[in-house]
Amino acid sequence: MTEMRMKALAKINLGLDVLRRREDGYHEVRMIMQTLRMYDKITIKKTKEPGIRLKSNLFYVPEDAGNLAYRAAKLLMDEFQVEEGVFIDLQKFIPVAAGMAGGSSDAAAVLYGINRMFQLNLSKKQLMERGVQIGADVPYCILRGTVLAEGIGEKLTPLPPMPSCRVLVAKPPISVSTKFVYENLKLDELEKHPRIDRLLEGIKEANLYKIAFYMGNVLETVTIPNYPVIARIREEMLQLGALNAMMSGSGPTVFGLFDDNELAMQAYTKMREGNLAKQVYLTGIYNRN
């Protein structure tokens, strides 16, 4: 096998709660993650020249060890002393620095690709164990689907698939630092937390309306006061007929769930015509089964 083509899928958080800050500086979380049918395209080619070369379609995406996909390839190739080289062509479509795990998903796809291409024979579990060394979201991006994530995001419990629906995704023309959001999260001042257990009930009951009702993201308490445009996008989605709308991850991307395809298409058109969001997509839910 000299070439592999893969899709690195985006994610949203249906629920995101932060329980505490650990002594090592990491935050303990309880999240429900969901994969979307939005993806970056990755092609890996073997080269006779040793080493890793990475090329992206976006000028501002790092093409060296600053890129998680590069680090994923290096991690496996160093461990298994792969003598050949690889060229990674990364076509980015998932918004960058947007709370949708684009970089982590790219890394997950490269781990999978390098494992297959060089016949390293690592299981999915073994890939996930290595993925957490690159980033907390990488193991989830290997697993995909509807998943409860705990610990720092590495303790994953697969859930029944989320009911199918249309998902409107909108990113304003800003980038948000995940580090900034977590550093400014004041857990002792929070009046309420997302009701993750009720959200879990909705998923287990395959009840889209219950899922939408109990969606919640504790990081909005930091990001929205600093970037009010996020709240404006959310409100517009609700006015356009979303069952509910919320920021994904640490932001700034907002997503809305729609149970009516025609309504979702109309909302997509309106959001694209407006000036709140720079990138707007209409997609759907991806499940493993």
Provide the fold topology.
Layout: E1 3-21, E2 27-47, E3 51-56, H1 68-79, E4 85-91, H2 102-117, H3 124-131, H4 138-143, E5 146-151, E6 155-158, E7 166-171, H5 178-183, H6 196-204, H7 208-214, E8 216-217, H8 220-226, H9 229-239, E9 244-247, E10 254-258, H10 261-273, E11 279-284
Parallel strand pairs: 1-8, 3-4
Antiparallel strand pairs: 1-2, 2-4, 2-5, 5-6, 7-10, 7-11, 9-10
Which characteristics define this entry?
7-stranded mixed sheet; 289 residues; 2 domains; Alpha-Beta Plaits; 4-stranded antiparallel sheet; Ribosomal Protein S5, domain 2; alpha+beta; 10 helices
How many β-strands, per DSSP?
Answer: 11
Q: Based on CA inertia axes, which overall geometry fits?
A: globular
Q: Mean pLDDT score, rounded?
A: 94
- As for the number of domains, it is 2
Helix content: 25-40%
Q: What is the CATH C-level name of the largest domain?
A: Alpha Beta
Q: Tell me about the largest β-sheet.
A: 7 strands, mixed
* Low-pLDDT residue spans: none
Order of helices and strands: EEEHEHHHEEEHHHEHHEEHE
CATH architecture of the largest domain: 2-Layer Sandwich
Task: Summarize the structure in words.
There is one protein chain. By secondary structure, the protein is an alpha+beta fold. The protein folds into 2 domains: 3-158, Ribosomal Protein S5, domain 2 (2-Layer Sandwich), CATH 3.30.230.10; 166-284, GHMP kinase, C-terminal domain (Alpha-Beta Plaits). Helix content is 33%, strand content 30%. The protein has helices at residues 68-79, 102-117, 124-131, 138-143, 178-183, 196-204, 208-214, 220-226, 229-239, 261-273; strands at 3-21, 27-47, 51-56, 85-91, 146-151, 155-158, 166-171, 216-217, 244-247, 254-258, 279-284. The strands form 2 sheets. Strands 1, 2, 3, 4, 5, 6 and 8 form a 7-stranded mixed β-sheet that branches. It has a 4-stranded antiparallel β-sheet with strand order 9-10-7-11, with helices on one face. Helix 1 runs parallel beside helix 2 and helix 2 (102-117) packs across helix 3. The protein starts with a strand and ends in a 5-residue tail after the last strand. The relative contact order is 0.17. The model has no long low-confidence stretch (mean pLDDT 94).
